[in-house]
Amino acid sequence: MPGSQPVAMRRRKHTAWKKNLMTAATHHLAAFVWLATLQILPAQAPPTPAAPPEQALASALNAFAADLHHQLAARGEPVCSPISVSLALLAMLPGARGATADEIAEALHLPEDLRGDALGAAAERLIARAGMRSHAGEAPNRDNPELRLQNDFWSQPGFELLSAYSTALQDCFGAALHQVDFAADTERARREINDTIRDATAGHITELLPEGSLQARTRHLMTSALWLRARWAHEFERKQEPVPFHVTATRTVQTPMMRRTDWLAYAECDAWQAVRLPMKGETLEFEIVLPRAGQSLDVAERALLQDRPRAAATTRGVLVTMPPFTVRGEHRLRASLQALGVRAAFSNEADFTGIDPVMPVSFEDVLHRTWIQVDHEGVEAAAATGAVGVGGPEGPISEPVPFFADRPFAFALRDVRTGLLLFLGRVFDPSRGP
Predict the structure, then answer these.
(1) Cα dist. 262→265, 267, 280, 285 in Å?
(2) When you count CB atoms within 10 A of the terminal residue's CB, does the N or C end of the chain come out lower?
(3) Which of 341, 342, 363 is nearest to 352 (CA)?
(4) 356 and 244 in one domain?
(5) Tens digit of pLDDT for each residue in 112-152?
(6) Is residue 276 classed exposed, middle or buried when 0-12, 13-18 and 19+ CB atoms within 10 A define those classes?
(7) What does the alpha-carbon distance between residue 35 and residue 39 come to, in Å, rounded to a whole number?
(8) What's the domain count of the chain?
(9) 118 and 187 in a common domain
(10) 78-107, pLDDT tens digit by residue?
């Protein structure tokens, strides 16, 4: 129609102008967001160096220690040496294949880069760094802890180990290889193995293998024994008069106490108190977590296993009062390890063809015993497994923090250099003797 053309043209021009304006605005907005993003992004931090393999292995084994402790606590007395159990399982891994190897590795929290060939070298370095080696022929040194690890692998004559596996046992785990005739004289084999463990633990673990634990069809056995003796950096004073120790809300026993005032690593919260006691030589420390009155021991144990006291610790003047004690642990670990996912190793589906490619091998059980004694001089501890100081200000401490362990508490003995948990446990009743 006449006159409509100019209107249509005007509309098209307006639409085009609006579209160009929106496009320009969009481009501007996009440029603004991009520039703003460039301005507010923080500078990238340099990558964190990867932990040395032996340190990564120590962290993995501590995670396993926490899992094992929870399993044992649910079944009764959780006193154990998690590193003794870990090393026995680690020494079986080079001979495991398929799902058997995967389950053991998962239970031990091993990262992917510590499986396979890398494991042996990391284990060897961890054992050396933590000072767990043979000290045969060395004179005792009262200023340094004595920490002795003995690994042994026992085989039926006629059943040869694969060369690669025997080399890994000897080179990476320092294991001695033995032949004993399980088939012809099971009882004699049991006595020989128990005698070796007794000698390795200074007489404290006398019968790792009870009667009936071995059978004529037993073909291979791995044992790992650990013995430790260490003196406090500063000895405790002994109090002569027994004092009450509150085992439960309704049961109290009388027990002697020992005390010491020192600058120590100390942490506290509404639920617990914690203190770390260094040993002579500065390579070991004894950690105690004491629940507050009215709090459960489980709360203290969880804090200990999650490393919360270590993360929160500061150097304080502390008056530590605690009982001397002796505790033992005796465990058959099959059910606990199965609960942690190690199932194939205990079944007919076990694949240990890296140990013996001819004769099928499986776990019958994993036996573990622990003995720990703490007194005014220091700590002595022993464990065996068989698989069928912080400095402070100078001067006197005028108002020390009281740490009075007159009720059940959790404890750990740890290697300072690696953080590795060597022994774990709890004290319910210190009046129970050895």
Answers:
(1) 10, 14, 14, 14
(2) N
(3) 363
(4) no
(5) 999 888 999 999 999 999 998 654 445 556 678 899 999 99
(6) buried
(7) 6
(8) 2
(9) yes
(10) 999 999 999 999 999 999 999 999 999 999
